[in-house]
Amino acid sequence: MAMYRLSHGRRLLCCGHSYLSIALSGINPPPTSNQSNNFLHSLLDAPNFFEFTLRNSSSRHQFYNSFHLIRPFGVYQTLFGNSHISTLASKENEQKPKNNGSSKPDQSWIDVYLPQKARPYAHLARIDKPIGTWLLAWPCMWSITMAAVPATLPDFKMMALFGSGALLLRGAGCTINDLLDQDIDRKVERTRSRPVASGILTPFQGLCFLAFQLSLGLGVLLQLNNFSRVLGASSLLLVFSYPFMKRLTFWPQAYLGLTFNWGALLGWAAVRGSLDPAIVLPLYASGVFWTLVYDTIYAHQDKEDDVRVGVKSTALRFGDSTKEWITGFGIACIGSLAFSGFNANLGWPYYAFLIGASGQLGWQILTVDLSSRADCNRK
Known about the structure:
Its EC number is 2.5.1.39. It is a multi-pass membrane protein. The protein has 379 residues and is mainly alpha-helical. It has helices at 2-25, 33-36, 39-55, 57-67, 75-82, 85-95, 109-113, 119-124, 131-146, 156-180, 182-185, 203-221, 226-248, 252-260, 263-272, 277-299, 303-309, 314-318, 322-343, 348-367, 373-378. It starts with a helix and ends with a helix.
């Protein structure tokens, strides 16, 4: 009985070898007589065959229909386990772009420390991404510092008040933007996971949260003098209208500059009770030019999605000339800061630090890779 099984097994193996030879004959040149009698050679050559069958559907079907004859001896499983089919599959997986959930937000401290119900609102206000708050707060701090009495420190209480206001107003602006742009956000890879666009929060919940933030912001504004209250409240017109600009013009970044740098006017007014146009207007202009630099770089992340969705940006307007444009804006930014400092009678340390700032801005423009989303975000 054992001899019968062994003889039957040899016939099966030889039959399997014949089918392998037939299948391989369409791939490689006909084997020599010595090779055709060497089943071991077929096993060694099988990985090339398997790699071919992954790319050739007719050969794959012929192989599967034929190779079942040698399954009882486990050769089929052994070949698939030890051949470089697994290597080929792993290489194909490596070549495929990895999807690490790019449409989902990266986990931040919000997802670790805040209660479950508070997390969507915190994400809506972007409180885990403080760069936006800093960009809104810096012009305020510049203005408050320049408005200080010469040879004295700036009003730190006022700076803390404006820092709180920047956090609240930035969160309110993000909420307004997400409510008005929810249809666009769903079509853009970077924004489709935002709370309103993804459906985690309803528009009504977003509106309630907006009212809450604006109420707190009003409490901050009421701490200022009457002139500053009117000036601060007038900025809401810019905040509410900004999301529409990307539908109307290729210059929404310029409009964002007018909005984000309103603190350059408000900070001075909060300290002095009025405005000095010779100082605050160049300071305000420098902030607008600065915003055109960093937000144009930022807009290059979404340029493919913007074209598909139909919204506009300076990244699309400038195209391959972007670096020339933002270089000009950078020079205008530094020049406006120098002019404002000159009119404010600031000493040489101001200009020394301004030279350092211009070097950093020049490095940023020179080294940014506008074709890389990651580098645009980092810069």
